[in-house]
Write a structure and sequence with these properties.
TniQ protein, alpha+beta, 2 domains, 4-stranded antiparallel sheet, 3-stranded antiparallel sheet
Length: 185
Amino acid sequence: MGDRFQTIVDLDATATDAEPLARRVLDWLAAEGVVLAERTDCVLGQPLGHLPGPHWERAVTDDWDFEPWDGLAVHTRRTGFTSGADMPGAAVCPHCASATPLDDETRPRFFTAMQTWHDTGTASVDCPACTTPVAVPDWSWDEAPLAFGHLGFEFWNWPDLTEDFRTRLAGQLDGHRTAYVWGDI
C-alpha cells in the first residue's frame, strides 16, 4: 500500500491571510482533539506537521478500517495542489461550465498559466467557449483534481475525511471557497 493524502485547499486566501487563517484552523483542530498542537516530524515532504489527536475519528467516516499513521501538513505559501501523477482531462469554466479538453493545443496554454501563477501569484486563461478570462485558481478540473491556493491542509494516511468535517473546517475560513484534493503516491 502506498501513501495517500487528502487536502482541503482555501481558494480565496491571500498570501497575507494564509498564516492567520492557518493558526485559527489549527487552534480549532487542536481544541476538537483532531490533531495535536505540537509540531513533529510526521508528514511526507515537510519538515514538521501535526500528529492525529485523541479524537481524530471526529474527522473521518464511520467505516474506517485503519487509524491514521501520519499527520497534518499545513501549507501557507502559493502552492499548486495535485492528486498525484495524473493530470485532468479537461478544465471546466466557472462562468459557462464548458469543459475544455486538455489536448495538445490547449494543454500548453494552461500549463504556462499554471507556472506563471506559481511564479507570480496571478495568471488567467481565456475560456475557449465564452472567451472570459478565468484566473487559474477559479478553473475546475475533471478526473484528477487540482487546486491552487496559498493555504492547504494536507492529511497524510488518514481514513476518508467526511464531508461534514470538510464543511466545518471550511467554516473556519471566513466564508472562503475550498477545494478537496486527494490522491496516492
